[in-house]
Design brief:
Elements lengths: L4 H28 L2 E7 L2 E22 L5 E6 L6 E2 L4 E5 L2 H36 L5 H34 L1 E3 L4 E3 L9 E2 L8 E16 H13 L11 E3 L10 E6 L9 E8 L11 E18 L4 E2 L5 E6 L5 E12 L2 E6 L6 E5 L10 E5 L12 H4 L1
Parallel strand pairs: 1-19
Antiparallel strand pairs: 1-18, 2-9, 2-13, 3-5, 3-8, 4-7, 5-6, 7-9, 9-12, 10-13, 11-12, 13-17, 14-15, 15-16, 16-17
């Protein structure tokens, strides 16, 4: 069937207008449809607050080995960088002169003991004669005094021998503690002096090891105020986690040993010391680490995922929540610190609020939305009907 050109043009215009009207209706329907968002329903929970503090590792014990007598180093008895035990010899000095002094003191002691033995025999004989009045009382008293003097000489000689043996022992320099010894500052043949300022070697005990931390005094004051007000409960007894320079946690936990009693006036911070087991000696003195220490427990804390908090150019924070009639509502929020991937809320939100965490780019305050709880299984779309396929 052939239509006149005028009739064909009218039909085409009518079809185009009908299609445009349908498109406008569909677009209006899409604009009025509620937006799809994902929300999280807030609830109170027990939140353990921690604080990361910078610090440096320090040896548990440090002993700088110095000579106590003068002498020439005859031999070094340890391997540099190795492990040594308490009492293990480290250096041997030339002890010929000290050995001779000890031998001389030993001979003096033997002479004094012989003299004392003779005086004892003489005093015994004089005492027997004095009983029968064969000798005068003065002779008896002189014999007793001579015996006491001889015994005193024995004591002095024995003390001289002990002193000589001590000096001789100092010629063999030993390690005062167990640990790892560093490099030697002297070699064989070097002359060393008693009390010299330069240590021959340094021994450090690395298991356990200390971590010295610094914390701002303002943070300490804030923590104390929150503890006194009852908002927080103390949790400093919790183990301390040590984070290595690359961010990985150290295998062994630490314990807080003490806090400094004064604040450094130049930095406004105070020191804390943590003791950490270090059996494999992974931590070495002078390493930079960070430590997570307990900062209190919030019994009824509220946590919000970070993506649910917005921050404007002025630094003010807010959140979009679902209000009445399932409409979006903007609400100012105050957050204090990050706990993992969430913010700790101080004000502005309460338990039961539904905070929007996904789909924020497509919505505005006042718009109706259709919410899905975060973590809920996604619903599968309905199967298309035969009419939809046509």
């Amino acid at each position: 069937m052939h239509l006149p050109p005028a009739r064909l043009l009218a039909v085409s215009l009518a079809t185009a207008l009908a299609a445009s009207a349908c498109g406008s209706a569909d677009q209006g329907a899409d604009q009025n449809a509620p937006g799809q968002v994902t929300v999280t329903t807030l609830k109170t929970e027990k939140v353990a607050l921690t604080r990361q503090l910078p610090g440096r590792t320090t040896a548990f014990l440090v002993a700088e080995v110095r000579p106590q007598v003068n002498g020439i180093v005859a031999k070094r008895l340890f391997a540099e960088g190795g492990l040594v035990d308490a009492g293990q010899p480290l250096y041997q000095l030339d002890d010929a002169a000290y050995r001779a002094q000890a031998n001389s003191a030993r001979a003096q002691l033997a002479r004094a003991e012989a003299t004392a033995n003779a005086a004892r025999l003489s005093a015994r004989r004089v005492a027997e004669l004095a009983k029968v009045e064969a000798v005068s009382v003065q002779d008896n008293e002189n014999a007793i005094a001579a015996l006491k003097q001889a015994d005193a000489d024995v004591g002095a000689a024995r003390a001289s021998l002990d002193a000589a043996n001590v000096t001789l022992g100092y010629a063999r320099i030993i390690s005062p503690i167990s640990g790892r010894v560093g490099k030697s500052t002297v070699t064989q043949g070097a002359l060393v002096n008693a009390g010299q300022p330069t240590a021959l070697a340094t021994v450090q005990q690395l298991n356990p090891i200390y971590v010295d931390l610094t914390q701002s005094s303002s943070e300490l004051l804030q923590l104390r105020r929150e503890l006194e007000s009852g908002r927080l409960q103390d949790n400093k007894a919790l183990p301390v986690t040590i984070l290595l320079d690359d961010g990985t946690p150290f295998t062994h936990k630490g314990t807080l040993e003490f806090s400094e009693v004064s604040v450094d006036p130049t930095t406004g911070s105070y020191a804390l010391r943590v003791r950490v087991d270090n059996p494999d000696q992974v931590l070495m003195p002078g390493m930079y680490v960070r430590a997570e220490i307990g900062g209190g427990v919030r019994e009824n804390g509220i946590l919000v995922p970070m993506q649910g908090i917005n921050r404007d150019p002025k630094g003010d924070t807010s959140a979009l929540v679902i209000g009445k009639d399932n409409k979006v509502e903007a609400r100012p929020v105050t957050v204090s610190r990050a706990v993992g991937n969430k913010w700790l809320v101080e004000d502005g939100l309460k338990p039961g609020d539904k905070v929007i965490v996904e789909g924020l780019q497509k919505i505005q305050p006042g718009m109706p939305v259709q919410a899905t709880e975060m973590g809920a299984p996604a619903t599968k779309p309905a199967a298309a009907t035969s009419a939809d396929k046509q």
